[in-house]
Specification:
By secondary structure, the protein is an alpha/beta fold. The strands form two sheets. The chain has a seven-stranded parallel beta sheet, with helices on both faces. A five-stranded mixed beta sheet has the order 11-10-8-9-12, with helices on one face. Strand 2, helix 2 and strand 3 form a beta-alpha-beta unit. Helix 14 packs antiparallel against helix 15 and helix 15 packs antiparallel against helix 16. The termini are far apart. The structure holds nicotinamide-adenine-dinucleotide and magnesium ion. Nicotinamide-adenine-dinucleotide (NAD) binds next to helix 1.
Length: 386
């Protein structure tokens, strides 16, 4: 049996992971579950999967959960430190890293340092401190397996090939919910509209990232660290149907790609049983029915966030962590504080412009960049929201 911990078990990736566990109950035992504040959903999961440890990052929610789960024999921790403690202390072979945002950095790094294999969905920590995470993983000889569909596709397209033969990685992007919108219309787009993704059902933050194309900016940086490929060799292609999940071109101009219907259970299960595949009883890809696949170049005028990702990666050091933090603040403000969709790239741009990058030689350096970028971005939001 493989013992697993899920960081972010109540979210979209977390729920899809537990769906895989349900399909293969003899293969996986759940050792730990963590979430942010959803005590009701986590309680349901605790009663069903009976992990040894669980945590909620919101202390008051953790207290509530602890009272309601008394007598179940589950150790329930609270706060960000409690979440990291579950990642560190639980006995697990595999940690599914599926918290959203920078909040996943400390627990994911704790899991790496305690020698556990990582199935990585939570891309923001890789953006903030990719080199640090890979160095720590390499030192301990543990693998960070991609869950993000594009990176899983690249990973699968690399099997059986030599890394030095890779010419380019081509990450596909759906274009998101607003790809057809003319620039003038983007100014007035509502959060409700921006949350309607044509192909994927995901958490709110990544859905807005998909609408701005920042998700692809984050994924270019994620790919740089997962596959150790410089940014000049990572390209982005808009592919509206989300059938080709990404491609790798080799020196002889042969191109390998991974295809499938958009369903995160495929890449999640690949990471969970790597290198073997799970027989998932899901609908098969029917290309004749789909008929045609379409491709476009990214539009940097309407969607400037992708370029910000390349720029942050090129500058390096603390700049990607700064960009990521500003994006988290801006997306949250778009969803909850009434700033406009088109303010998101402006806030990120201004936060990056104000930042003097330094090297990331420690976790603390990444966290400090994250903290100060949040302060700067919040002040920009405050000025706009007035
Ligand atoms: P989600 O919002 O549905 O779930 C996030 C999870 O993290 C929840 O369990 C939530 O309780 C927990 N959480 C939130 N804030 C927290 C905090 N401060 N401390 C601890 N836990 C916290 O998000 P999602 O769509 O499942 O995405 C999770 C990650 O996976 C993101 O980084 C996203 O970019 C990445 N990802 C998601 C998908 C997808 O299909 N949903 C695909 C590729 C990559
Ligand atoms: Mg993706």
């Amino acid at each position: 049996m493989k013992s697993i911990v899920i960081l972010g078990s109540t979210g979209s990736i977390g729920s899809n992971t537990l769906d895989i566990v349900d399909r293969f109950p003899e293969e996986f035992a759940v050792a730990g579950l963590t979430a942010g504040s959803n005590d009701e959903k986590l309680e349901e999961q605790i009663r069903k999967y009976r992990p040894r440890m669980a945590a909620l990052s919101t202390p008051a929610a953790a207290d509530k959960l602890r009272r309601r789960c008394a007598g179940l024999g589950v150790e329930i921790l609270g706060g960000q430190e409690g979440v990291a403690e579950v990642a560190r202390a639980s006995k697990a072979d595999l940690v599914i890293s599926a918290i959203v945002g920078a909040a996943g950095l400390v627990p994911t790094l704790a899991a790496i340092k305690s020698g556990k294999t990582i199935a990585l969905a939570n891309k923001e920590p890789m953006v903030m401190a990719g080199k640090l995470m890979q160095d720590e993983a390499r030192q301990r000889g543990i693998a960070i397996l991609p869950v993000d569909s594009e990176h899983s596709a690249v990973f699968q397209s690399l099997v059986g090939h030599r890394r030095q033969d890779v010419k380019r990685i081509i990450l596909t992007a759906s274009g998101g919910p607003l790809w057809e919108f003319p620039a003038a219309q983007l100014r007035d787009v509502t959060p409700e509209r921006a949350l309607q993704h044509p192909n994927w059902k995901m958490g709110a933050k990544i859905t807005i990232d998909s609408a701005t194309l920042m998700n692809k900016g984050l994924e270019v940086i994620e790919a740089r660290w997962l596959f150790d490929v410089p940014e000049q060799r990572i390209e982005v292609l808009i592919h509206r149907e989300s059938i080709i999940h990404s491609l790798v071109e080799y020196d002889d101009r042969s191109v390998m790609a991974q295809l499938g219907l958009p369903d995160m259970r495929t890449p999640i299960s690949y990471a969970m049983r790597y290198p073997e595949r799970m027989p998932l009883n899901l609908p098969s890809l029917d290309l004749a029915e789909i008929g045609r696949l379409t491709f476009f170049k990214p539009d940097h005028d309407r969607f400037p966030c992708l370029k910000l990702g390349y720029e942050a990666l090129g500058i390096g050091g603390t700049m990607p962590a700064t960009m990521n933090a500003a994006n988290e603040i801006a997306v949250d403000a778009f969803l909850h504080q009434g700033i406009r969709f088109v303010d998101i790239p402006d806030i990120i741009r201004s936060t990056m412009d104000a930042h003097r990058p330094v090297e990331i030689d420690s976790l603390e350096a990444a966290l400090e960049a994250d903290r100060s970028a949040r302060v700067k971005a919040e002040s920009l939001v405050h000025a706009l929201a007035r």
